[in-house]
Write a structure and sequence with these properties.
Elements: E1 6-10, H1 13-19, H2 22-31, E2 33-34, H3 45-53, E3 56-59, H4 68-72, E4 79-82, H5 93-97, E5 101-104, H6 106-125, H7 128-136, E6 153-157, H8 161-172, E7 178-182, H9 188-194, E8 197-198, H10 201-207, E9 210-213, H11 227-232, E10 238-241, H12 250-258, E11 263-266, E12 286-288, H13 301-316, E13 323-324
Helix pairs in contact: 2-13, 6-8
């Protein structure tokens, strides 16, 4: 079809096959004229021809930065559809200033993060790490030493897309979780509608058995959980972080966990990865995974499916399901 839009793929080569397996790629090829050149660097000579004609850029992990120089090479560009979560890594304000539509598959990526977070919360509420370490050492915990999850207080930092998903799952659990929420942009009535009690961050730290972090990475949220706030956590509490490593002071967390006073379940760290031999990696009450809470393996095609759906919606002139607006850049993760 002559009127099909010109589409260019821009992501890391090893990501492409995961994001667009054959069935999805065939669907995309039916919707648009997909240029055969995969763009990983907008300044490369090979990128000149595809960018010159591109109306839609379908990006993914490893996408090149779309700044003024890149946009100058793509005069016809009208939409950037991202087959991953945040667009902050590659979409610059100039994209919005030029009126280019932007979409993200953050909703599709959120579901696995919620699942992962809930698994960590369940383990944390039962203090599974310490119990497992004792078991390996040959010590069987007495019944009076075991902790269940019923009635645990879960503190959620940030009513983000993922934070709200976690709250919804906590509410649906049969354990009678009490949910505290700290978010400066949420009113008490809004928190109550979500099923949580709004509180300030200090009181959330003091009152929670498990604290789970879902705030964005912003200058004002750097080390949101610093030495003082980590010190407010009650003995036996646990910290779950599937958001960004910069939200937690790593040195302060290391000191707290080294005492055995609190546990930590971390999918993100600062720095990431932690250097080999870092003390956190050896602590019996700390579990660290390499940023795997989001879509992994076969789950990644969820991101591609969301992106192809939005390409089709853009072609039809329909609102984008994952629409991102200029004002969002200042507050999204």
């Amino acid at each position: 079809m002559a009127d099909r839009p010109k589409l260019v793929l821009a992501m890391a080569p090893d990501v492409l096959a995961l994001v667009l397996p054959p069935a999805l790629r065939a669907r995309l090829d039916a919707l648009a004229d997909v240029h055969p050149v995969l763009v990983t660097d907008t300044a490369e000579p090979a990128a000149a021809a595809p960018l010159a004609d591109a109306q839609v850029l379908l990006t993914g992990w490893g996408a090149p930065v779309l700044d003024t120089a890149a946009l100058a090479r793509a005069p016809r560009l009208a939409a950037v559809v991202h087959a991953a979560g945040t667009v902050k890594g590659h979409v610059r304000p100039e994209v919005f200033a030029r009126g280019i539509a932007v979409s993200s598959a953050a909703d599709a990526n959120a579901a696995p993060v919620v699942d992962y977070t809930m698994a960590a919360v369940w383990f944390a509420a039962r203090r599974a790490l310490g119990t497992a370490a004792d078991y390996v050492a040959g010590r069987q915990p007495a019944l009076t030493e075991r902790r269940g999850a019923d009635g645990a207080v879960i503190g959620v930092i940030g009513a983000s897309r993922i934070g709200r998903g976690v709250i919804a799952r906590l509410r649906a659990a049969p354990t009678g979780f009490r949910i505290l929420l700290a978010d400066p942009y949420v009113t008490p009535a809004e928190a109550a509608a979500l099923g949580a009690t709004l509180t300030d961050l200090d009181d959330l730290c003091r009152g929670s058995d498990v604290v789970t972090v879902h705030a964005p990475d912003l200058p004002e949220t750097r080390h949101l959980l610093d030495a003082r706030r980590l010190g407010l956590l009650r003995d036996g509490a646990a910290l779950v972080n599937t958001a960004r490593g910069s939200l937690v002071d790593t040195d302060a967390l290391t000191r707290e966990c080294a005492t055995g006073r609190i546990d930590a379940y971390l999918d993100v760290t600062e720095p990431e990865p932690l250097p080999r031999g870092h003390r956190l990696l050896a602590l019996r009450n700390v579990l660290i995974t390499p940023h795997i809470a989001g879509a992994q393996g076969t789950e990644v095609q969820r991101l591609g499916r969301h992106a192809v759906d939005d390409v089709e919606r853009w072609i039809r002139g329909e609102p984008l399901l994952g629409a991102v607006h200029a004002a969002d850049l200042a507050r999204i993760a």
